[in-house]
Write a structure and sequence with these properties.
single chain, 243 residues, alpha+beta, NADH Oxidase, 4 strands, 46% helix, globular, FMN, NADP, NADPH-dependent oxidoreductase, Flavin_OxRdtase_Frp, oxidoreductase activity
């Protein structure tokens, strides 16, 4: 059942040696393409990195060497208005994509595509992991795989046969994210401490990488300082100028 598959998701970071075939990859990508897309622009592309040297370099740049070198397939999921530029040229027209709205459309399209790809892969028994680390050095990674103007990596995605079975990390309760008619922030005073206890219990009882930490502690530490401060400049060079 699809809902049960979705609720069983856990990131996989250790894979068996089996590589996905071209036929398997094509089947997964074709399924992923049936995700919803804003105004049918399909503002995404996927770079399948099969070259071993490029995978090694990608691992270094993203700080995820083990996954990039050991996965059954490595993808860069990219926002893409370059193809749409070519579409405009067929009609003698320059397209406009340097507005904030266009950036949101492309990133949303990539996210929907990625989730479809994840579901397709997991339905076949594969494990996956998103790699946000590809934004650690977006300029170098763009150069590594030849991404032109209008194209940038949003995240990586590794797929393969799991070599480990990870437990499902408890998510926030539904009432924490579901608001009816009006946004209710008062409920966080009780929900967040309860969720902290759930997460701390999970971390302390899991089979490996045990630790004592709460969700609010981790989020506070993570969001108390800026990250990847070069992205605005890098995106501007790609043509995304937030007009």
């Amino acid at each position: 059942m699809v809902i049960e598959l979705m609720k069983a998701h856990a990131s996989v970071r250790d894979y068996k040696e089996k590589q996905l075939t071209r036929e398997e990859v094509s089947e997964l990508i074709e399924a992923a393409q049936h995700a919803a897309t804003s105004h049918f622009v399909q503002a995404y592309s996927i770079v399948w990195v099969t070259d071993l040297e490029k995978r090694k370099k990608l691992g270094e740049l993203s700080k995820n060497a083990k996954q990039m070198e050991g996965a059954g397939a490595v993808f860069l999921l990219c926002a893409d208005y370059n193809r749409l530029q070519h579409a405009g040229k067929l009609h003698g027209q320059d397209i406009v994509f340097d507005q904030a709205e266009n950036l949101l459309v492309a990133v949303t399209d990539v996210g929907l595509l990625a989730q479809n790809l994840t579901l397709a892969a997991e339905s076949k028994g594969y494990g996956i992991c998103y790699i946000g680390g590809v934004r650690n050095d977006m300029a170098a990674i763009s150069e590594l795989v030849g991404l032109p103007e209008g194209v940038f990596p949003v995240y990586g995605l590794t797929i393969g046969v799991p070599n480990e079975a990870n437990g499902v990390k408890p998510r926030l309760p539904v009432e924490a994210i579901l608001h009816e008619n009006e946004y209710d922030e008062a409920k966080y005073e009780t929900i967040l401490p309860e969720y902290d206890r759930t997460i701390q219990s999970y971390y302390e009882s899991r089979g490996s990488n045990q630790k004592s930490a709460t969700w609010t502690q981790q989020m506070t530490q993570f969001l108390s300082k800026p990250h990847r401060q070069d992205l605005k400049e890098v995106l501007a060079k790609k043509g995304y100028r937030f007009k």
